[in-house]
């Protein structure tokens, strides 16, 4: 049985390797990476969704989010405080933004709602729907709360290169329902 210190070190090593793979994929990316994401979201027109404002080497969901915004509410995560679930503020392609925590932009005016579909950024994913995030637990806490209210679809959006053979997961880690990359759609059964 691994103790917490070991797991923290294992996760840190997994993150470091995954960040390197993501950076390489980001540097060689082709335009149109959000095409498959747009196709999947088109099947959920009008359902409230959240995306994210890409930072550093994250794959960019903004084209798919802009398309979805023509049909229904689209939000982006707003960090409330360490250890707290995220809240989602309404975003539009032309809406004014301000600096939020960790370098991600957030809407200038807070207009919170609960999304039913979350497009989730990640560092790494596995073939079973496991997700390795940044380590703050924000999405795990948030998905637990939202899924406690109603079915909530979690879609990981990543480069193919971010897939890992095995991830160090904990019981509190919320599984993804789907992962969409620049070339494929993976669906996982609960």
Automatic annotation (TrEMBL):
Belongs to the 5-formyltetrahydrofolate cyclo-ligase family. PANTHER family: 5-FORMYLTETRAHYDROFOLATE CYCLO-LIGASE (PTHR23407:SF1), ATPASE INHIBITOR/5-FORMYLTETRAHYDROFOLATE CYCLO-LIGASE (PTHR23407). GO terms for biological process: folic acid-containing compound biosynthetic process; tetrahydrofolate interconversion. Keywords: ATP-binding, Ligase, Magnesium, Metal-binding, Nucleotide-binding. It catalyses: (6S)-5-formyl-5,6,7,8-tetrahydrofolate + ATP = (6R)-5,10-methenyltetrahydrofolate + ADP + phosphate. It is an enzyme of class 6 (ligase). Pfam families: 5-FTHF_cyc-lig (PF01812). GO terms for molecular function: 5-formyltetrahydrofolate cyclo-ligase activity; ATP binding; metal ion binding. NCBIfam families: MTHFS_bact. Its cofactor is Mg(2+). Gene3D superfamilies: NagB/RpiA/CoA transferase-like (3.40.50.10420). Its EC number is 6.3.3.2. This is 5-formyltetrahydrofolate cyclo-ligase. InterPro entries: FTHF_cligase, FTHF_cligase-like_sf, NagB/RpiA_transferase-like.
